[in-house]
Amino acid sequence: MNEAGRSVGPARGSLQVALDHVVVVHDEIDLGFGDVRTRLGGGLAGHNGLKSIAKECGGSDFARVRVGVGRPDSTDPDVVAGYVLARFSELSAAVEALVDQAADAVGATLDGGL
């Protein structure tokens, strides 16, 4: 994810997709586990994947499906990185429900419902 722009930028250019028609689904530690929100544009909140996409796409005005994964008790960058790269500690049924909710949000976003 940290280097996602290396794929998204060229694909967007090749397919000639307007930036506001790009939908990025990403983990969001500033949302509690299970919370899914959508938005168009906005800040990058230190998210390296979003930074990479914004850099390679020439801006940050793309649609986002923000998938809440919660935040660890530490702000240490190594602890945070380990947290977001680790397996979920929640029950698999809760993770499956989160994936379903995120997929529904993508569908709604594609239908113009940000």
What does this structure look like?
The chain has 114 residues and is of the alpha+beta class. It has a single domain (5-110), classed as Peptidyl-tRNA hydrolase (Rossmann fold, 3-Layer(aba) Sandwich), CATH 3.40.50.1470. It has four helices and three strands, in the order H-E-E-H-E-H-H. It has helices at 5-15, 48-57, 77-85, 92-110; strands at 23-28, 36-40, 63-68. The chain has a three-stranded mixed beta sheet, with helices on one face. Helix 1 (5-15) packs parallel to helix 2 (48-57). The model has no long low-confidence stretch (mean pLDDT 93).
Short descriptors:
globular; three-stranded mixed sheet; 3 strands; 43% helix; Rossmann fold; single chain
Topology:
Blueprint: H1 5-15, E1 23-28, E2 36-40, H2 48-57, E3 63-68, H3 77-85, H4 92-110
Parallel strand pairs: 1-3
Antiparallel strand pairs: 2-3
The domain tally reads 1
CATH class: Alpha Beta
Uncertain spans, ≥5 residues at pLDDT below 50?
none
Helix content: 40-55%
Mean pLDDT: 93
CATH-assigned homologous superfamily: Peptidyl-tRNA hydrolase
CATH topology grouping: Rossmann fold
Report the β-strand fraction as a percent range: 5-15%
User: Number of helical runs?
Assistant: 4
